[in-house]
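Order emerges. For instance:

***
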Amino acid sequence: MFTLVIYDISDDELRMKVAQACKRFGLVRVQKSAFSGRIRSSLRKELIAVLNALVKDTEDNIQVYVVCEPDLSLKVELGKPFAGEDSDMLV
């Protein structure tokens, strides 16, 4: 299954920690505040636990979506494609 993580986090340090956690679990940045990739269900559960611990006592928001392959094939990307990560300044 495909995992999509999106977040709205105001604190720079916390935002960097969330991004680093997503990378550690094998996800790739697809937008400034979005990561995606194919990871096992057990890893997704671990990632969710880590992310929950990071934002537990904050006003910030993280959403984790599981997308099946048929739905993923319907993805439409509009505008200029995201160029990837040139630096951690994107976090």
